[in-house]
Amino acid sequence: MNPQQVLDAGQQGLMLMLLVSAPILIVVLVVGLLVSVFQAATQINESTLSFVPKIVACVGVLAFAGPWMLQTLVEYLQRTLHAIPGAVG
User: Fold this and answer.
1) What is the reported pLDDT for 74?
2) Is residue 17 part of a domain?
3) Average of pLDDT values for 62-82?
4) Cα dihedral 73, 75, 77, 79 sign
5) CA torsion angle for 46, 49, 55, 58 (degrees, to 10)?
6) What b/e sequence results for 41-75 when a residue is b if at least 16 CB atoms lie within 10 Å of its CB, and e otherwise?
7) Do 61 and 23 form a contact (C-beta atoms < 8 A)?
8) Distance between CA 33 and CA 47 in Å, rounded?
9) Terminus-to-terminus CA distance in the chain, angstroms?
10) What angle (nearest 5°) sits at the alpha carbon of residue 81, between those of residues 86 and 7?
11) What percent of the chain is helix, strand and coil (3-state, nearest 5)?
12) Domain-located, residue 89
């Protein structure tokens, strides 16, 4: 296995990580922004008000996009495991 193959494998892993985590991160970011605007408009500074909607949104995204995330990760793992014999010998 040459250094270019190692770099390609690392790059594919990082891109997959970004792709799989993006739905959760985007939704939680948007929900956090909306809650912050609501808190600023109403001057309610309750700390649990920011966490509960984010957790609910995260669970919703995992329920909706979880199967796709799991399938994507399993396919990547299968490709990686099938590539081991070619990299070793």
Assistant:
1) 96
2) yes
3) 94
4) negative
5) -130
6) eeeeeeeeeeeebeeebbeebeeebeeebeeeeee
7) yes
8) 14
9) 8
10) 70
11) 90, 0, 10
12) no
Query: pLDDT tens digits for 15-66?
Result: 999 999 999 999 999 999 999 999 989 988 887 888 999 999 999 999 999 9
Query: CA–CA distance from 44 to each of 12, 36, 71 (Å)?
Result: 44, 10, 41
**How confident is residue 88, by pLDDT bands cut at 50, 70 and 90?**
confident
Burial degree of 15 (CB within 10 A; 0-12, 13-18, 19+): exposed
12 is written with which tokens? 């594919």
Q: Count up the domains in the chain and report the number.
A: 1
Return the pLDDT at 54.
93
Structure tokens belonging to residue 18? 């970004």
Q: Which residue has the tokens 């892993």?
A: 13
Q: Which domain holds residue 80?
A: 3-84
Backbone angles phi, psi at 33, to 5 degrees: -65, -45
